[in-house]
């Protein structure tokens, strides 16, 4: 079973995350940031991951920065733990996802070499109590804590909600492809290890 739980407790946030990479898309998410809850729900449903996220303490009275970034840190660590030694997975995945007028792309390599390329220009600063600039910080936190090389791009779109949601869904489909189990238990690597 590829399941894991992680938590992070700081002076600013207390966050618990559980993920099952072989789930069915069941969620229980409460971060205090409505748009982030919506994006995490989309990620889980479209990736077919069971996901629980509980932000038990946050400093949302200041802004959403620590809540969003720390949720990404804990989610990334949970994904990394659930993947274990990464043997027998497809390793690579990519997807283009349209959402109305918007089109986004994601490509992932579960390489153990964290890197993020993020290409999206936000037209608005806020969606509800979510700062759109935090999208890049969230994905950086996930990538660096899960050991992913992650490329994300919004190709076009007039609506920030659509552009970002298409990006989260593209990430979900790319991750679902990358974590898929292969017949062979060997790592997909010329080095023999990931």
UniProtKB/TrEMBL annotation:
Keyword Iron-sulfur: no
Biological process, per Gene Ontology: L-histidine biosynthetic process
Cellular component GO terms, alphabetical: cytoplasm
Pathway: Amino-acid biosynthesis; L-histidine biosynthesis; L-histidine from 5-phospho-alpha-D-ribose 1-diphosphate: step 6/9
EC number in record: 4.2.1.19
UniProt keyword list: Amino-acid biosynthesis, Cytoplasm, Histidine biosynthesis, Lyase
Primary localisation category: cytoplasm
GO molecular function, one term: imidazoleglycerol-phosphate dehydratase activity
Top EC class of this enzyme: lyase
SUPFAM superfamilies: Ribosomal protein S5 domain 2-like
Pfam families for the chain: IGPD
Keyword Lyase: yes
InterPro entries linked to this entry: IGPD_sf (IPR038494), ImidazoleglycerolP_deHydtase (IPR000807), ImidazoleglycerP_deHydtase_CS (IPR020565), Ribosomal_Su5_D2-typ_SF (IPR020568)
Reaction catalysis annotation: D-erythro-1-(imidazol-4-yl)glycerol 3-phosphate = 3-(imidazol-4-yl)-2-oxopropyl phosphate + H2O
Compartment(s) of residence: Cytoplasm
Family in the record: Belongs to the imidazoleglycerol-phosphate dehydratase family.
Name assigned to this protein: Imidazoleglycerol-phosphate dehydratase
Source species taxonomy: Bacteria, Bacillati, Bacillota, Clostridia, Eubacteriales
């Amino acid at each position: 079973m590829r399941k894991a739980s992680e938590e992070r407790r700081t002076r600013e946030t207390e966050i618990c995350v559980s993920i099952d990479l072989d789930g069915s898309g069941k969620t229980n998410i409460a971060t205090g940031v409505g748009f982030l809850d919506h994006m995490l729900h989309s990620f889980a449903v479209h990736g077919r991951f069971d996901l629980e996220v509980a932000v038990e303490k946050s400093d949302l009275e200041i802004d959403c920065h620590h809540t969003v970034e720390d949720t990404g840190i804990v989610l990334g660590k949970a994904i990394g733990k659930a993947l274990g030694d990464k043997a027998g997975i497809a390793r690579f995945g990519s997807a283009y996802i349209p959402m109305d007028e918007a089109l986004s792309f994601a490509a992932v390599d579960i390489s153990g070499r964290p890197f993020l390329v993020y290409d999206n220009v936000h037209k608005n600063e806020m969606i509800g109590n979510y700062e759109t600039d935090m999208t890049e910080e969230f994905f950086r936190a996930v990538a660096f804590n899960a050991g992913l090389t992650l490329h994300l791009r919004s190709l076009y779109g007039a609506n920030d909600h659509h552009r970002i949601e298409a990006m989260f869904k593209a990430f979900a489909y790319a991750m679902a492809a990358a974590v898929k189990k292969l017949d062979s238990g060997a790592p997909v690597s010329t080095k023999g290890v990931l």
